[in-house]
Design a protein that fits this description.
The chain is an alpha/beta fold. The chain has two domains: 276 residues, Rossmann fold, CATH 3.40.50; 194 residues, Rossmann fold. The chain has 16 helices and 17 strands. The strands form three sheets. Strands 3-4-5-2-1-6-7-10-11 form a nine-stranded mixed beta sheet, with helices on both faces. The two termini are 33 Å apart. The N terminus is likely disordered. Bound molecules: adenosine-5'-diphosphate. One of its GO terms (cellular component) is chloroplast. It is found in: Plastid, Chloroplast; Plastid, Amyloplast. Pathway: Glycan biosynthesis; starch biosynthesis. Its EC number is 2.4.1.-.
Length: 501
C-alpha cells in the first residue's frame, strides 16, 4: 500500500460479540483495508458461531492472569474471522466464566469481564505485543483503561494509547465498589467522584466512568448522541464526567457492512435487485406476503416494516400505535421483534394473536436473520420511532434496500435521516420522514406525510427510493475518522515522549 511505516497502527480491539460484533468486524475490516494490522481479543465463549472461525487452534502460550489474589492460567486460542486474526481467551478458572451458553446477562458479569479485561492485557504483555492503539468497546472491557495505566504501562506496555467506544450509555456495568479489587485495581485510588465512583452512591463503582477518565480517546456512535449524553437529560448520570473530558470525546456515526447488506447480491433474498431494476423488490414483497399469509392483491398497498429489539428505548408504544395507524391509512404492517422484557413480550404476543389471521398485519416475535433480510427488501417504508438511539443500523439497512425510513429525530437517526419536507436541508440529502415529539400525534405527523407521498406521487417516490439506495453507508468514512483520531493520539504521545527526552 506504500504507506509510511510510522503511520501504521497496530490495533488490538478487545471486544464482545452480539450486535456490537457487526460494528467491530466492519470497523476492523475497514482499518485493515487501510493497511493497519488489526488484531481482536475476545473471550472464548462456548456459544460462538464456531463454524465462522477458520483455523481455530490453541497456542503454545499459557497466559497467567491475576484475580482475587491468585494467578489463573488461561488457554489462548487463535483463529481467523472474516479475514481478521482473533485471539480467544479461555480462562481455566473454576467459575467457567465463558461457559454459560450466553455472552452476557449473568449475575457475575462484573467478575467475568473484569477477569477478561485483565487477562487480555496480560496476553498483550506476555505475547510481547506493542500495539499503538488498544480499542475497547463498552463497559465489559472498560476495565482495560485503568488497568493499563495502573499496572501495564509501568510494565513496559507503554507505547499504546487507549481508545474507548461506548455504544450505549444506558449500560454502564456498575457494581459494589469492593468488586473492583478482584482484578487488581486499587479501590481507594479509584473510588473517588472524579474517577470511578458512580454518581448514585459512594459505594458503587462505574466501569464506563473509569474508561472515560482513563482513556486517551473516548468515542460514541453518532455526533448527535455525543451531544445528547453531555446533557443531564441524556447523560445517564455521566454528563458531568463527559463534559469534564470533552476535549477527548467525539461522536462518529457507524457504517453498515455493505458487503453483507447488499440487495444486488443478498443470498437470503428470493430475488436480487438494484437501483436500475427494482422489479426484484416488488417480487420479494409478493413472496413475503405469500410466506406470511398476507394479502397481495393490491401491489400499491404500502408495506411498513419494523425490525427491532422490543425494549423501551425503541419507542414500543409508537411501534404498537403504528400497527393500527398503518391499517387506518390503508397499509400493511410487518414487525420482526424479540423482547427480553417480559411485560413487553406479553403485550406484543397478545397483539400478535389478535392479528393472527389478519390479511394486512403480521407480528413475528423472534430473532430471525434470514427473515430480516426479506423484510428490509419487501418494505416500502420502515419505522424507527426510538426514544433514544445511539446510532441505529436499521434505518441505514432499510435505505440500502429501498425502504423509506420514518424516524424520530434523536441520536444517530438525526445524523442519517433527513426529512423530505425540510427546506433547511439540501434536496439531495433528504431521504425520509422525521418527527420530534415521541407521542402518537408526533409520529402521525411524519407517518401520514409518508403515506400521502406514496399514494399521490409515485414518480417522486420512485426517485426517493433511488436516492436512498445510492447513499454510501459503508464504513470507509467512519473508519477514516477513527484512523485520524488514532494517528493524532499516537503522534501526540510520541511528541510528549521526545520532549521528555
Ligand atoms: P440495537 O443494537 O439497539 O439493537 P441497531 O439498529 O443498532 O439496534 O441494530 C439492530 C440490528 O439487529 C440490525 O442489524 C437488525 O437487522 C438486527 N435485528 C434486530 N432485531 C432483529 C430480529 N428480531 N431478527 C433479526 N434481526 C434483528
Amino acid at each position: 500500500m506504500g504507506r509510511p511505516e510510522e503511520s501504521r497502527s497496530e490495533v488490538s480491539a478487545v471486544a464482545l460479540v452480539g450486535g456490537l460484533g457487526d460494528v467491530l468486524s466492519a470497523l476492523s475490516k475497514a482499518l485493515q483495508r487501510k493497511g493497519h494490522l488489526v488484531e481482536i481479543v475476545l473471550p472464548k465463549y462456548d456459544c460462538m458461531q464456531y463454524e465462522s472461525i477458520q483455523d481455530l487452534r490453541v497456542l503454545d502460550l499459557v497466559v497467567e492472569s491475576y484475580f482475587d489474589g491468585q494467578l489463573f492460567k488461561n488457554k489462548i486460542w487463535i483463529g481467523t474471522v472474516e479475514g481478521l486474526p482473533v485471539y480467544f481467551i479461555e480462562p481455566l478458572h473454576p467459575a467457567k466464566f465463558f461457559w454459560r451458553g450466553k455472552t452476557y446477562g449473568e449475575p457475575d458479569d462484573f467478575r467475568r469481564f473484569s477477569f477478561f479485561s485483565r487477562a487480555a492485557l496480560e496476553l498483550l504483555h506476555q505475547a510481547d505485543k506493542k500495539p499503538d492503539i488498544i480499542h475497547c468497546h463498552d463497559w465489559q472491557t472498560a476495565f482495560v483503561a485503568p488497568l493499563y495505566w495502573d499496572l501495564y504501562a509501568p510494565k513496559g506496555l507503554n507505547s499504546a494509547r487507549i481508545c474507548f467506544t461506548c455504544h450505549n450509555f444506558e449500560y454502564q456495568g456498575t457494581a459494589p465498589a469492593s468488586e473492583i479489587a478482584s482484578c487488581g485495581l486499587d479501590i481507594h485510588n479509584l473510588n473517588r467522584p472524579d474517577r470511578m465512583q458512580d454518581h448514585s452512591s459512594p459505594d458503587r463503582i462505574n466501569p464506563v466512568k473509569g474508561a472515560i477518565v482513563f482513556s486517551n480517546i473516548v468515542t460514541t456512535v453518532s455526533p448527535t448522541y455525543a451531544q445528547e449524553v453531555r446533557t443531564s437529560k441524556g447523560g445517564q448520570g455521566l454528563h458531568a464526567t463527559l463534559n469534564a473530558h470533552a476535549q477527548k470525546f467525539v461522536g462518529i456515526l457507524n457504517g453498515i457492512d455493505t458487503d453483507s447488506w447488499n440487495p444486488a447480491t443478498d443470498s437470503f433474498l428470493r430475488f436480487q435487485y438494484n437501483t436500475n431494476d427494482l422489479e426484484g423488490k416488488a417480487e420479494n414483497k409478493k413472496a413475503l406476503q405469500r410466506h406470511l399469509g398476507l394479502s397481495f392483491s393490491d401491489s400499491r398497498r404500502p408495506l411498513v416494516g419494523c425490525i427491532t429489539r422490543l425494549v423501551p428505548q425503541k419507542g414500543v408504544h409508537l411501534i404498537r400505535h403504528a400497527i393500527y395507524r398503518s391499517l387506518e391509512l390503508g397499509g400493511q404492517f410487518v414487525l420482526l421483534g424479540s423482547s427480553p422484557v417480559p411485560d413487553i413480550r406479553r403485550e406484543f404476543e397478545e397483539i400478535a394473536k389478535n392479528f393472527e389471521n389478519h390479511e394486512h398485519v403480521r407480528l413475528i416475535l423472534k430473532y430471525d436473520e434470514a427473515l430480516s433480510h426479506s423484510i428490509y427488501a419487501s418494505s416500502d417504508m420502515f419505522i424507527i420511532p426510538s426514544i433514544f438511539e445511539p446510532c441505529g443500523l436499521t434505518q441505514m439497512i432499510a435505505m440500502r434496500y429501498g425502504a423509506i425510513p420514518i424516524a424520530r429525530k434523536t441520536g444517530g437517526l438525526n445524523d442519517s435521516v433527513f426529512d423530505v419536507d425540510d427546506d433547511t436541508i439540501p434536496v439531495q440529502l433528504r431521504n425520509g420522514y422525521t418527527f420530534v415529539t415521541p407521542n402518537e400525534q408526533g409520529f402521525n405527523g411524519a407517518f401520514d406525510r409518508a403515506f400521502n407521498h406514496y399514494k399521490n406521487d409515485n414518480e417522486s417516490w420512485q426517485e426517493l427510493i433511488n436516492r436512498v439506495m445510492n447513499i454510501d453507508f459503508s464504513w470507509d468514512t467512519s473508519a477514516s475518522q477513527y484512523e485520524e483520531l488514532y494517528l493524532q493520539s499516537v503522534s501526540r504521545a510520541r511528541a510528549a515522549r521526545q520532549a521528555a527526552g
